[in-house]
Amino acid sequence: MAGPGPIDPRLQALRDELDQVDAGLIDLAGRRQRIVAEIGRIKQGAGRQLRDFRREREVLDRVRGRAESAGLDPDVAEDLLKRLIDASLTRQEQDRVRAAGRGEGRQALVIGGAGLLGQWLVGFLDSQGYAVSVADPAADPTLPGTYPDWRQAPLDAELVVVSTPPKASAAIIEELAERRVPGLVFDVGSIKSPLIPALRAAAGAGLNICSIHPMFGPDTQLLSGRHVLLMDVGCRAAVESAGALFVDTMAEVVEVALDQHDRLMALVLGLSHALNIAFFTALVRSGIQADQLAGISSTTFKRQLEIARDVAAENPDLYHEIQRLNEHGGLARRALVEAVELLSAASDADDPAAFTDLMLEGRSYLEGLGR
Ligand SMILES: C=C(O[C@@H]1C=C(C(=O)O)C=C[C@H]1O)C(=O)O
């Protein structure tokens, strides 16, 4: 490749022109966002739901058509608009949560509020207009409303969120029950079995308590397409109030039976994490550098590698807990080992029938999925 030499003036002129085009694109995208925010206000005033899939399809179809006449690949135009629509939905969702101001300045306490999910919850409650306190030994105690020890925090808050590791959460919930805290209490853990006795006992003792599991990471902005699992632990009123925290968002709140939660999570979290850890472990052991493989990646490998990289970047202690503390975790991992053995035997056979069976079974299992 040619190194940097004196730049051809025609090249420079074209790059200058391109910079102007880019600046224009960004200005237009900003203008789009302002219009979208206005549309959001009108929809909110009219009590309409924010997301309008039919309108989005129209927008995408229109830009695809426009792209063709403009000499741009329609897929590029669609990708670009999807990204912008995402940004507009995020903006409309955040505006709506803020405008609804359900917290109305009332107190909320997040125990474990300095953790990653804890910080997300603090921001989320703050945007709803709650006055949020944080109890966490890792938080900066000089900040107002911050307590190293949760016992010293305002336990009469209207809302007490327990965002600590599972074992700590069980002990905290027991103590909250002993102290008969008056507000709505919920934990947000990924694993519920270690908490179930404490949660049920607290509800039995009259606490306004339920259990929540947000199915997204702490860097999530837009809640459209995200799930929030909600578990009744013996207090119906708590389920209703906790669900209400999400009504101004586009998250889908799904109620799950408390004793089913971990069985389902063994697959949704445990199996998908395990599969990716197994995948990158096999790559590490291959002795071939990731860069080299990425440099010759296929479509599937590229997607798989991106997921594996995200999984590898997660907190090892949390991921170990998700495997270890889920009493159904072992079953899911054994199912994975058995599936690999089955696949291996089917791959070694000269007759493709067994392999084909696996593929076709998977196809019919998955083909009904909505896109
Ligand atoms: C802007 C609107 O809100 C949302 C965002 C859209 C967009 O960015 O184009 C389209 C439909 C809605 O889901 C709208 O309803 O028109």
TrEMBL record:
InterPro entries: 6-PGluconate_DH-like_C_sf (IPR008927), Chorismate_II_sf (IPR036263), CM_dom_sf (IPR036979), CM_II_prokaryot (IPR002701), NAD(P)-bd_dom_sf (IPR036291), PDH_C (IPR046825), PDH_N (IPR046826), Preph/Arog_dehydrog (IPR050812). GO terms for molecular function: chorismate mutase activity; NAD+ binding; prephenate dehydrogenase (NAD+) activity; prephenate dehydrogenase (NADP+) activity. Residues 5-96 form the Chorismate mutase domain. GO terms for biological process: chorismate metabolic process; tyrosine biosynthetic process. Residues 106-371 form the Prephenate/arogenate dehydrogenase domain. It is an enzyme of class 5 (isomerase). SMART domains: CM_2. Keywords: Oxidoreductase. This is chorismate mutase. PROSITE patterns: CHORISMATE_MUT_2, PDH_ADH. It comes from the Bacteria. Its EC number is 5.4.99.5.
